Each structure stands twice: as C-alpha cells, then as structure tokens.
Amino acid sequence: MKLHIFGCCAGFESISNYNHTSFALEVGEDVYWFDAGESCSNTAHLKGVDLTKVSNIFISHTHMDRVGGLFNLVWFIYKLAGWYKKCLPNNGKINLFIPNMETWKGILQMLLHTRERCPWDTDVIATQIKDGLIYKDENIEVLAYHNRHQEIYECGSQLSFSFKIRGEEKTIVYSGEVEDLSELDQLLVEHCDYLLIETGNHQMKDICVYVNAKDVKDVICIHHSREILCNISQARLEITKYAKRNIILAVDCDSLIL
After folding, report:
1. Are residues 141 and 167 in contact, defined by beta-carbon separation less than 8 angstroms?
2. Global pTM exceeds 0.90
3. Of 153, 164, 139, which Cα lies nearest the Cα of 100?
4. What is the rounded distance in angstroms from the CA atom of residue 218 to the CA atom of residue 234?
5. Tens of pLDDT along 186-240?
6. What are phi and psi of 155, to 5 degrees?
7. 50: which residues sit within 8 A by CB, 6+ positions away?
8. Could you read off the pLDDT of 29-49 as tens digits, one per residue?
9. Is there a contact between 24 and 4 (Cβ–Cβ < 8 Å)?
C-alpha cells in the first residue's frame, strides 16, 4: 500500500508551493482518493499517479479546502480515460462519498455544462456519508465517524467526518478536521498502524502528547497551518522534543510506503 500526498495546506491564505489537502491510497491496482483540494488532480498526474485507476472518492467535509479541486478531478479522470482509450474500473462508474449532497449538486451542474459528452449524472454515483461502514471491497473498507468541525457553522448537522480505513491487514485513521483531538478517541480504541492527523487547528506539542498515549505505530501529519509550513524546521524540533511515537511531517508530493 502506498500513500500519495497531493496537498498539505490548511484552509488559510495561499502559501507558495503548497496546495490544500488531498491524498490517495494506492492498493494493488486501485487508487482510493480522500479529499480534493485545488490542483490535486494536476499534481497527481504530474507525479505519475494513474487517475484512471480512481473509482472511489471520499470527502471528509465540504469546505473549499477539501472540495476546491473535486470538479477538475472528476473531469480529469474521464478526460484521461478518453485520451488514452482506457477502461475505467467499476464499469466506468465513480463512487463519490460526500457529507453534503448540495455541494455535489452544484459541482454536477458545472460538469453538465462542459464540452465533454459524458453522462455525469449517472457515471458519478454520489452517496451522502453517514456514521458507520460506507464502503468495502476486496482491498479496503472505510468507516465514517462524524466529528464536530462543521457543527458550529451548520447548526449541528453531521457534515464533517473522520475515517477509519482497513486494508492489507493494516488500520489507518484519517482525522479529517476535528475541533478537539479527543474526538479521535472513538477511532483509536484499538491498535492503529497509521494515524493521518491534521495539524491546522492544533499545536504540535499537543498532538505529540495526545498520540503518545495512544496505541499508534506511526503518525503522519497533514493539513498544516501557516505557522508550521513557514517554519517546518521548528515543527520538526518540537516533534523530536515531545514525541514518543514515529511522527512524519508530510508535505505536498510526498509518497510513503505503508
């Protein structure tokens, strides 16, 4: 299993050389996509990731730093398949798992008005995310756990999620964006091989202290604040000082073997 990081920046003002959060897991011949910050598909294509192997896209929440590149990602997948005359997996269908269906309806309207003659409204199968098992195939299973990130904006609706991913006898937890680190407790009751945790709303010391107390083998930090991205060396010093776990500070275009 391989992890590809296409963007690591939190949703603040633009920072040179960094894009908003997006990553994918490559498992066997399949690519599973998580969040879609701007330029994610272009970055993946230039990295050599085969977009025509993507048949499942999972969106943690629909703030712009997670869906700003979703329109182009979906378009790019079908465009490349047409250029290279490649058959897409899943009989040419893309499964999209998204918390807010209204966001998808807006993106669909944009896709329906492109010049490409693609039946977007039937070839992309959008499902609203709810708590529990949302996807399973021979490679992975994905479980969703709602968090509090969008409650303060959306009147308590469950519009933001963390994910637990199991595959190749490994367990991966993706924090999404949480208001408090304790929201991850429900995902970390059992052993976790890899914790992908956002740093945009939290101090590095607090993250280190939190994961030190959990049964986690490796921690991969993503979705970084301006404070971290503008002073990565300081963040790494804090990791060295406070962490008792192996913590990796991931940035755009990193790829890791899990």
Report:
1. yes
2. yes
3. 153
4. 20
5. 999 999 999 999 999 999 999 999 999 999 999 999 999 999 999 999 999 999 9
6. 55, 40
7. 31
8. 999 999 999 999 999 999 999
9. yes
